[in-house]
Fold these 2 entries.
Entry 1:
Amino acid sequence: MADVQQIPDSARTPDGAVVRRVLAFGAHPDDLDFGAAGTIAAWAAAGAEIHYGIMTDGDAGGFDPDQRDEIVATRRDEQRSAAARVGAREVHFLGYRDGYLEPSHEVRRDVVRLIRTVRPDVVLSMHPERNWASLHMSHPDHLACGEAVTRAVYPAAENPFAYPELADGGLGAYRVPWLWLYGAPEGRINHTVDVTAHVEAKLEAIRVHLSQHSDFEATERYVRARLLATAASAGFAEGASGEGFHVVAVNAKDTIAGF
């Protein structure tokens, strides 16, 4: 980790705390790259340890019917490579079926297990609310990912009596300080990260997912436009790029348990 005084605002929480360890969840391989890879790259560049939790295998993705027997392995390889582009340390695959994800106790237990293993400063996840401005952002698996993670963060991860088999296996309760949600409806965004210095790393990560896009030039134009629009909405300097989040202080400095 770099000298604390030299760490930029892009690698801090809203209260100024340095982000040192992150557990980032996506429903499918590539969700994190589209939704938050610029911010992840900023955190990693400042020395944070980044873990990914990918909930489904993305087995319903792609375009080629002849790929069906290979698509899971392909998408896992793509996600590992994309994660490396932005400095993520490890990718954990939960292995659920693409298109069938639900915020079940099985999924939530797997999320709690990862949270208690990694013990992150920030849990990053997809937003659990439907975004009527973009149904593509509100894929049912995306909503299920957000709901499962939110329920896992509170109260399950910090409740020593939730999923006792985890505690019996040495994974004790853990209080997550911050929950950051990406893909949020515009009215929910309350924090924007300046990712201007990390746009190319984000695009490199997206580009790796060759099985999922047939026209990368169009994808790149779309991503750049969204980053510029997000930064402009936050009042950043002209030409800056930003990623927006709904940030929730779960157990931050001034949090009182239960309130």
Note: The mean pLDDT is 94.
Entry 2:
Amino acid sequence: MTPELILLFTTTASVAFFHTVMGPDHYVPFIALGKNKSWSLQKMCLVVIACALGHAVGSILLGLVGIYFGLELQVLSSFEGNRVVFAAWAMIAFGLIYGSWGLKKAFLRRPHEHWHAHDGVFHSHQHVHDEKHTHIHNPYDLDKRDSSAWALFIIFVLGPCEPLIPLMMLPAANESVIGVIGVIAIFFLVTLITMLGVVIVGFYSLNRARFDFFSRFGSTLTGGSIAACGLLVIIFEI
């Protein structure tokens, strides 16, 4: 392996790592949704892998098309930039809708008393109106009714890996097939491993914490955190 390729691959790994860590949209939605919906660690990791794959495939295909047809980097970067904005607004919309639904659910969960007579005794008991509880028997199962996981997957498919295409174009300019393949493989693997690492740490950290407030307003906080991630992407272009 030439020194140029070693430098390119090292740069690719560094860019992928810092791009993922500095972008809360790469891990906060999974941690928040997983905590709120009581996902198992296996299911959360499966969702992360699926979203990471969808996140990368679009940019990889676009980069390969650009290389094949000799498109300019500026054209590809402009297209990717538009995808970033669109995906960010989609994440904001999803977060606001999910948070609003959570707020409605929180009010339905507000305890209230019912008075009634039983065996000659007049007494009260607390009651909440809430949805039915469902059991997930397979920790790896992506339930078709779990719309939040699928919505997150679609958003990640729409969202590009912005730094990937410029990195792909460097070895392509030198007609290095090994360089292009290496950049794609390293960028995807480092991104995936970093996402999984941060999500797993977040999973265990939140599982150890107990918040009574979160049990009622968890969906609202989850939606707000997801919307905030999309807003950060637009403001700071991360």
Note: Residues 26-110+139-236 form one domain.
